[in-house]
Amino acid sequence: MTPKAKFVLGAGLVTLTVGFLMAEGIKDTGVYFLMPAELAERVASDASMYEVGIRVGGTVVAGSIERDVATMTLEFEVTDGEATFPVTYQGLVPDTFMDDGEVVVEGRLSPEGTIHATTVLAKCGSRYEAVAEDVAETTY
Amino acid sequence: MTILGQLALGLGFLLAIWGTVVGAIAGHTGRLELVLSARRTVYALFGVMAVATLALIIALLNNDFNVEYVWQYTSRELPTVYTLAALYAGQAGSLLFWVFVLTGFAAAAIWLSPSRYARLLPYVGAVTCAVALFFLAAILFSANPFDRLPFTPPDGNGLNPQLQNPGMAIHPPMLYLGYISITIPFAFAVAALLSRRLDGDWIHAVRKWTLLSWVFLSVGITLGMWWAYVELGWGGYWAWDPVENASFLPWLTMTAFLHSVMIQEKRGMLKKWNVILIALSFMLSIFGTFITRSGIISSVHSFTQSDIGYFFLVFLVLATGFLIWLFWSRLPLLKSEGHLESMVSREASFLFNNLLLVGMAFAILWGTMFPMISELVRGVQVTVGPPFFNRVNFPIGLALLALTGIGPLIAWRKASPENLKRQFTIPIAVASVLGVLLIALRFGDFYAGAALTIGLFVTVAVLQEFWRGVGARHRLHDENYALALVRLVGRNRRRYGGYVVHLAIVMYFVGFAGTAFRTELRATLNPGESATLRSAYGYDYTFTHVGVSTFQSLNRDVIAATVEVKRNGELVGLIRSEKRQHFRCRVAVSPCPNDPQYKEASFQPSTEAGIRSDLREDIYVVFAGVAEGTESAVYQFTLTPLVWWIWFGGVLLVVGGVIVMWPGGGPTRRSPRRAIAGYNVKLVDEREKAAVS
């Protein structure tokens, strides 16, 4: 076998390995990214959407945030204007998490219809007119 | 002043058109007056962009809030250094900065290039002008930093507090310098293709430029990691976020290019591949800017989008089409002079290095684009997160790490058994001892253990090279060891500088391995209460909440919380973490009166983590807030081993890069054949010049 053929063989093996790792990675860790309306629609027709990894993007319903400092639990509702889902989460949220802010929630949807989040990502909304007095109070 | 900036932009636009057209014609015909005109156009374009940039800087420093860009990114109380950083904080400013730096690099490349490359330079000018033209079009028609507001607000919106950090002040320009300077080697490659001068001269011409942009990219990425670590408050430094990935992609292809050009220089192989790699690096750097600026990926559904994305998309499509045509039409000229003689050779190790780097880039690109791909194919967005990237990249990364030890030591063409034995016996023996030891001690994490073992192999292999070189000089020239080391490195800068960079890469991997052993704890503490967290080394850290204080500082209200830290009962010190609320002042007074009625909050509150580092591990304290009306504070404590190694790996990487790039000195080892080829080209050039004049 010529060195070139050997190299092509080695390269083929490397490529296959990388391809295999990628395919497995996507199969095992890929999650659906849905808007609340899409999630509601899918759940209605497909019960297997419960208790699997999902990411839901939307905005935080104003006034729905409830924080419990002692247990560090957070409850809020995420919406896209059409459908709304309650979310529970335990842990710290980014500074950018707030009413009407845009969030991406990662977690699982329980059969009761609540999203149990493992991660809450927040992106700055376009509104920055939060009031300075809020600062003196809590952000958690 | 902004009127001057506007004029400069318009003039720059015209100059860029002229430079593109004239450069292309000059390159094609070689007519001297056109060649000179193309050259002067590049210089003039640089001058004009300098004026535009200066105009924006002056507007920023003057707090000219009537200019929308100035209003949006600065405020009266913003420290001057960040006012300057606002130049590249927003879209319009960063595009202007891009063109300014690009034209600066182009002018420098043309100014500094020896006359040997004279036939390439008009095309180089044309390519850089064409790229500048595209950015200028985006500025003029979509994101102009000199646009004015219909009224003048009393105070500006202010710079995003997360960007008000010394790391952030230099992280974007470093990354930009890296992205932008890739244009120069790319322009030389296109020039070589256009002029059909594909003898390897262009590779020599761009050697230092390539390395320069690679060092800038590396520093930019490392500073980005540092910024994320210090400023974002989650205790990590890399999240496989689309924007991070976008900066990593050209780094990977550039790294591949840096290695594969050595094969072309020594053996005349891989000519096609090198052209493809540099074109890919350039396209990926534009793509990176596109992802960062358009928000096309992170913005999956509803996040703000900008029409600037279309400019990039059009540019990417046009450039790809042009490059494919160009490459295709020059294919016969890119024949390889050598061929692979053995799988056990430096060529083969470099080929695998290239394959792995490009494979890694492909996997990361695929993962980053997967939401879009899956939406197109299956009609539903599927995203992949850090687990996907880690799973794919850990094994590839480790294979690459091993190659940083194998590549430089293995012989060219075909390694003899003696060569292998001489070079690898000691490194493999030493690393095996560590490997066996780690298995015996039931080391907690497979990948981390492998990284440490392979890292030790590379370190020993590289140090052995230094040791042998110094020993030889010591014996032959009777120099003392220190002098021998300095001369050894000084006389073979490329080689030993490269080794230093490889050691730096090992340091990064040591840092990555440490991250596998991160421990964290969240706790709500009353003053005097404490929480205990055990680190990976088995130390018990006790954090005692000391208290909370509130004060105003410059442009922000601050709540600071302090903990006292003890390691196994022994005092380490106090660590303070802050929650900041930035504001803009409702009145044009400096400093702003400390009264809520004058302060209008700008941006979300931001977190300033408290960090104490040493060689072993980092103590990382995040203050998440206070429970209403009390002094009881919510904390997150994180202990991460070996983070320090990443930052100092970055420092060592720059040292290695500077050693390689240091100008002059040292015998350049060029093969006689190439020297003659260069001489011939020069003679032809002189003759042609004589004929023209």
Q: What's the CATH topology label of the largest domain in chain A?
A: OB fold (Dihydrolipoamide Acetyltransferase, E2P)
Identify the most extensive interface between protein chains.
A-B, 56 and 68 residues
Q: Classify the secondary structure makeup of chain B into a structural class.
A: alpha+beta
Spatial sequence of strands, sheet with the most strands of chain A: 2-4-5-7-6
User: Can you say what the CATH homologous superfamily of the largest domain in chain A is?
Assistant: Nucleic acid-binding proteins
Give the oligomer, counting copies of the same chain as homo and different chains as hetero: heterodimer
Q: Hey, roughly how much beta strand do the residues of chain A contain?
A: 25-35%
How many strands appear in the DSSP assignment of chain A? 7
Which consecutive residue ranges of chain B, at least 5 long each, have pLDDT under 50? 299-305, 665-689
Helix run count of chain B? 20
User: Structural class of the helix and strand makeup of chain A?
Assistant: alpha+beta
Structure at a glance:
The complex is a heterodimer of chains A (140) and B (693). With 140 residues, chain A is of the alpha+beta class.
Would you spell out the secondary-structure blueprint of this structure?
The complex is a heterodimer of chains A (140) and B (693).
Chain A: H1 3-29, E1 31-34, H2 36-45, E2 53-60, E3 66-68, E4 73-79, E5 84-90, E6 102-109, E7 115-123, H3 133-136
Parallel strand pairs in A: 1-2, 5-7
Antiparallel strand pairs in A: 2-4, 2-6, 3-4, 4-5, 6-7
Chain B: H1 2-29, H2 32-61, H3 68-73, H4 80-85, H5 91-112, H6 121-141, H7 166-181, H8 183-195, H9 201-231, H10 242-267, H11 271-294, H12 308-329, H13 346-378, E1 381-383, H14 386-406, H15 417-440, H16 446-477, H17 481-491, H18 493-515, E2 519-525, E3 530-534, E4 540-553, E5 556-567, E6 570-585, E7 599-601, E8 606-608, E9 610-613, E10 617-626, E11 633-641, H19 644-661, H20 672-692
Antiparallel strand pairs in B: 2-11, 3-4, 4-5, 5-6, 6-7, 6-8, 9-10, 10-11
